[in-house]
Amino acid sequence: MLSNLGYFDKQQTRPSRRTCLTMLGNIPSMKTKPTKLIVAENILRLMEAAPPPRNTQLGLSKKAGVAQSSIGRLIRAEVEARLDLLEDVARALGVTVGDLTTERDASYIDYNRKQYAALSTPDKEKVESFIAFVIESSAKGAKRDTLEFTQIGRLTEDEMKGESAVGNERLNQQTLTANETKDQTVPRRHQKRH
Question: Among positive and negative, which fits the CA dihedral 77, 82, 87, 88?
């Protein structure tokens, strides 16, 4: 298939290294910084949010079972971390290796993945539904049917008197809901009294 697209060198039967790198470099979702910088930023961010002793290099190194100097080199982005080291650090911080090596962009959602995994299926569906609702309601040009706090202002004295009068009014058959008018008739159900 690649040969049909012209990605093979004429004298080679496989793509050249330069061509492959060029093809991969055009993928917009690829990371924009070196992995060691991403790992350093993520470890620092997770350490700041972690409770003691994991919020210090020494505490994290003890929890991970690695040398403090290794944690320091990771944080200063001096080395490309070995997978076994990343696994130990991730375990100590309570995250996955992917969490350490993934660059946070605008689409990143920060949440406790272990607690999410422990949720029931209906609760997971609620979380996903809420995210979809927020995204949909904040979409450009979306009509808002909800009242926002910024729309609430101070009531005048007359408005407060009116609100308090409505709140103190006894409910009866003559009371209307917000969607009813006086012209609408509500069928009454007569119950036999015993």
Answer: negative
